[in-house]
Write a structure and sequence with these properties.
This protein is 22% helix and 35% strand. The protein has 250 residues and is an alpha+beta fold. The protein is globular, with a radius of gyration of 19 Å.
Length: 250
């Protein structure tokens, strides 16, 4: 059970694996995970179940290139690999909770390392941003899921941005209908129109140098508007829910 402070320290390999299993199982929308390739087999069943739940899974594997790799399409939405063995152990679930520590906890059961599990939205957001802004950018893309089946409704905005980016890079025209809040006066409205841009750095080609930026530009009847996720400030709107669909053929 999580300590009252929202932090719990784990010092054994078995405790860290159990904590990671629990975090992966708890994810309802999005999951980021950085693990040594040689330890990935410990989490295949849980990651596979997350994919079955339509969770966005961003997986970074690092270290031993000779270690066997599972079928990535069964356990992740996007996978990057990095040769460096200095990547820390990182997990975030729904940008609400997570775990961070020394990756040696998963490769050396006798090592004197520790990991910290946290149930804190601010810490989770910081770890998620560090994951994307540092370690993820250093990796090489080795797997990306196919464009999802449309129409599809997203409550996790970053998943919508990823789906839109994949569709646009394949030349698939898509439209959006979004329930949004104005970032100026917090009034709620619904906007719709073609998606003409997705700014993100999750998949190639990256369209933003800011790893925290995930936004869509939608061409409405009143002109193009930008839509961001929860806490958006630079965009015109903050998204609450969005449905993406293939554009009707002209």
């Amino acid at each position: 059970m999580m300590a009252q402070s929202g932090l719990q320290t784990h010092r054994t390999q078995s405790a860290v694996i159990d904590a990671m299993h629990s975090l992966i199982d708890s994810a309802g929308e999005s999951l980021t995970i950085a693990v040594p390739k040689s330890a990935l087999h410990e989490f295949v069943p849980q990651l596979g179940a997350a994919i079955e739940r339509d969770v966005l899974v961003l997986l970074l594997v690092h270290g031993d290139e000779a270690a066997p790799a599972p079928a990535y399409e069964e356990i992740a939405t996007a996978v990057r690999t990095i040769e460096s063995g200095i990547t820390p152990l990182l997990v975030t679930a729904d940008m609400q909770r997570g775990l961070t520590g020394h990756s040696g906890l998963l490769t050396n059961s006798m090592a004197d390392y520790q990991a910290t599990e946290f149930d804190n939205e601010n810490l989770a957001h910081d770890e998620f941003t560090m994951f994307l802004g540092s370690h993820w950018l250093m990796g090489a893309e080795c797997y990306i899921a196919d464009v999802c089946v449309f129409p599809r409704t997203f409550s996790a905005f970053q998943f919508a941005v990823l789906a839109a980016a994949l569709a646009l890079r394949e030349g698939t025209a898509i439209t959006a209908r979004a329930r949004v809040l104005s970032t100026a006066d917090r009034t709620e409205t619904t906007i719709s129109g073609p998606v003409i841009n997705a700014r993100q750095s999750i998949v190639y080609p990256a369209s933003s140098k800011n790893p925290a930026e995930r936004s869509l530009t939608i061409k409405t009847d009143s002109g193009p508007v930008t839509v961001g996720g929860s806490g958006a400030t630079r965009e015109v709107y903050e998204c609450r829910e969005i449905t993406l669909d293939r554009a009707a053929e002209q």
